[in-house]
Structures are given as structure tokens and as C-alpha cells.
Amino acid sequence: MDVRAMNAEMTAKLIDAPAEAPPEGGYTLRVVETRGRRTGEPRRVPLAVVAHDGGQYLVSPVRDRDWVENLLAAPECTLLSGGLREDRRAGEVGGEEAAAVVAGYLAAMSVPWAVRAFPVPQDATPAQILAHLPGMAVFRLSTVDTA
Questions:
Q1: Is 0.85 topped by the overall pTM?
Q2: Which terminus of the chain has fewer CB atoms gathered within 10 Å of its CB, N or C?
Q3: CA nearest neighbour of 27 among 71, 58, 68
């Protein structure tokens, strides 16, 4: 199965599932809707929302993913599930904060292919991850006041 087909299938399953907050130090799968940077059209992708130190994050092992480039161009996004739309703003973070989030995500991740996508081992420390951060993307999600 190709990645687009796998993402479409997972998106269809997740969009109807009840919204669950990720457990601290872990993650939950959600559908994230971004705005296409060329078309402006909504783009949906299943992603892990990572909980770390009271915040929620999105993590990518590489920067050349469409959803990463879309968020860099337009940081507004929406978490979709169970009929709910939760508007968020994704702000890229770096340094020790990002390294700690990646370390937590890797420690919690149980899907081998997801772990292999990272340029560091699953048990990498934040200090080991720091050197590889320029090739990764980590976004902190904040709520958006829609009132």
C-alpha cells in the first residue's frame, strides 16, 4: 500500500473516532487539517499529537513533508475527530524543548516504521537529538480564540 492510500484509510478511520487528549509523555493519533500552501485547499493527514510538559506538539522526522511545509507557510490548523473541529496554531520550536519532545515521542512510539524514520535511535537522549534537530520539525500547538 502506498503512503497516500495508507494516510487516506487512516484519516477515514480517525475522523469518526472520539477525540482523545494524548496522555502526558505519550501521544494520540488525530487528523490534522492544514491549508495547502499552493492551492489554499484543506489538506488532511493523520498525525500523532504528542503531550509533553503540559503542551501538545506535532513531530516530523524530516522537514520535507507536505504538512510541515504547509504549517510553515500558514500555521493555522484544525484537529478533527468525532465530529469536532479544534482550531489550533502551530508554532515551530527548537532547542532543548524540541529535543525533549522528540525523545518523549520516540520513547512512547510502538510502530517500528515510525521509529525508523528518525535519524536517531529510539532510546536517544535529548542531548543526542539536538544535533539532528535541523533536519526535523517540531510544532507546539496552541488554542485559537474563535470568539
A1: yes
A2: C
A3: 58
Note the pLDDT tens digit of each residue in 72-85: 999 999 999 888 89
Give how far the C-alpha of residue 67 lies from the chain's centroid of Cα atoms, to the nearest Å.
9
Q: How far apart are CA 57 and CA 93, in angstroms?
A: 9
What DSSP element (H or E) covers 3?
helix 3-16
| CA dist., res. 69 & res. 83, Å (int) | 26
* Secondary structure (DSSP) of 76-138: EEEEEETTEEEEEEEEE--HHHHHHHHHHHHHH---HHHHHTSSS-TT--HHHHHTTGGGSEE
- All three cell numbers of 70, joined, read 504547509
